[in-house]
Amino acid sequence: MLLPVIFWVAGIIVGRWLQLPSAGIVAFAMGLLCAAILLKNLRSILILMLFFSFGALRYEAGRSRPSELIDILQRRNEIQQMIRYRIDTKLADNVYQASVQEIAGIDIEEKVLLYYHSELKIGHIYSSLSMLEPSFSDPLLDIYPQRFRAILRPVLPPQEQDSEQKLDPVSRLRKLLHDRLDEHLGIYSPIAKALLLSDTGFKREHRVELSRAGITHLIVVSGLHVMMLSLIIMVILRLFIPMRLAELLFMLFLLFFAALNNWAPPILRAMLMLDLLVLARWMSRRLAAAQNLSVSLFIITMINPAELFQLGLQLSYLSVALIVFALPHIRHGAKTVIGKTTGILANYLLISFVVGLGIAPLTLYYFGSASLNGIIANLLGLPLMTMLLVLSIIVPILPLGIFVTAFQGFADLWQYWLDFCAGLPLFLEAYWLSLAQALALGCGIFLFILLIKGRFRLFFRALIPLAAAIAILLLLPVSHKDEVIFFNAGVADCSLIFDDMGNSMMIDTGGIPGSRAETDLSIEATDESWMKNTLLVWLARNRIRRLDYLMITHLHTDHAGGMTGVLSSLDVGNLIISEHDLDSPIWKNLQTQLKLEDTNIICVKDSTSIAFGNRRLKILHPDSRYTDTDINNQSIVCRYDTDELSFLFTGDIEKEAEAWLVDHYPEELKADILKVAHHGSRGSSSAVFLDAVKPIEAVFLCSKRNVYGFPHQEVISRLNSLGTRLRFSYNGSIRYSTK
Prior knowledge:
- Helix 1 runs parallel beside helix 13, helix 6 packs across helix 17 and helix 13 runs antiparallel to helix 14.
- It contains 29 helices and 22 strands.
- It starts with a helix and ends with a strand.
- The longest helix is centred in the middle third of the chain and has 24 residues, at 374-397.
- By secondary structure, the protein is an alpha/beta fold.
- The strands form four sheets. A seven-stranded mixed β-sheet has the order 14-13-12-11-10-9-22.
């Protein structure tokens, strides 16, 4: 069963990658079926190819059926109505997962992402006038598949409803447990809710420590928790009822526990594997671990093939696969208690080492971190987690002082152990791998595992092809040439140019979430910049370690908010900045704290041009004759010409600077692509200026909803009158090929 499931999974991956038409896949599958009937000698490989085509077809079938709500949103783009919804869980500050139940009196069911600035109660039902809009995934910056297809934003404060009569039994129990844990455990409740209800509060608060300690898996409900609960439940049930009935009740409990935790993929995987073991035993059939793993994966991806691309499922199956296929067993042969204990401990440490090493390519690719501290952390962390999990079940049922005190004691010990293990040195952070690098590391780990398992013959057979694959993946040059990218950075500017020789120039660095766009830049405000949290990760995955040029059009946070992150993380050859900014108090406050030792500063005093590969980048503004001291009107304006396209970058200039450019550089303004000034503010993009540029396309760098109302309708109307195609970064980063 393992090989067919591998081909099935490969078909799902290829189906998502190529998005093949269903009719073509069906025709291909029918051809394979006919060939399998006629060609006996090739039947095995043809059947495997059938599984491959069925996987691709299943992905396409699941992708082509939007819900009724999504279908409406695609037609209307947004809905503003009275909406009733249940809060399922909190994902981050001011961010929730919610289930829409009713829109304008019409029953509907859809999981959505909800943004609201005040605290909402988990499991409670609210109603409010709300805005519902489709969600999207940035094709360039986002590597996680989109979990939610719609976003809910309350327009008026949510009003709590009489939720008890409207909740299903599982949701009612989840709400009851949530409330009772809060009532009896107080400040200790987040860890109990994390272990029992998949609540993410504790994980969010201790994200860094958990990652460094390598025991994040212990604090989120996973297959490990299901296994521990299963052992406890089965021991208790066997004391009172026969085995077959105990197993039946146990399977029902697993089903209910998975529902209680919103059918999380790791829990679903563990539930299916345990259920398959029980069913196999009932039928007196032996079920190998590899078969169990592959059948459960087949069932999950048959129900929802998109789950294959969720990180939780990937980590869960990879961890179990490493234990099943990669784990060498230390044979101790001891007969004494001490000898047996030592052997068990050695095997336990080996499991932690192999799993920690094996999942490193995934965690480095997704999170930029990896830890082997879990080898030590699991020693005490696992028993503590088990005790806390058991007490999390007992306290809501029997909230006696002894159980509450015991929980608090174990929680304090867990916190001490977590802090200690987070300080151990065996971890990497802020080191993201590209997909090619992650695959190369995976190949190297596979060879290492073959060695420690003693599979020397297979090791030598795989050594040459895998070593060649590693060399190709690591040494094959990644070429970035002939492209211009406008990034989706919210109400902020960040663009990246690669010329025909592969030289790079970044124009502005995005902003700082929560900061007013027009705020003057300060070093203290840059730690939470969009650059640090988003674009530096993308640059690392694309092996971009150096910028030949960094241009800062002006020193407002929505343009220079990520400058500190760029200069501290990348090798920047030249920093282009205006004389107006260099003489400002803002810069004088910044320069002593910036990493500028190896960076040449180019001061723009007048209109000029810069050699950029075989092309030139012309700086049109500000020049020495311009006297307006407004920081927006002092923005650097430049144009970049390629063989195919011309681009005009305008910073935040307003109508005064635009009039100056029209009067002094009218012949330089005509461009194919216009980066619209000041995010589409009505104070910019005057009719005279736009008539001089006559852009084929205009790019607005702004979020869909912002406090400024950008882009303003006046600007859109002026561009529409010119027949210009409008593009908005909030629909996803925009990439132009300039070959």
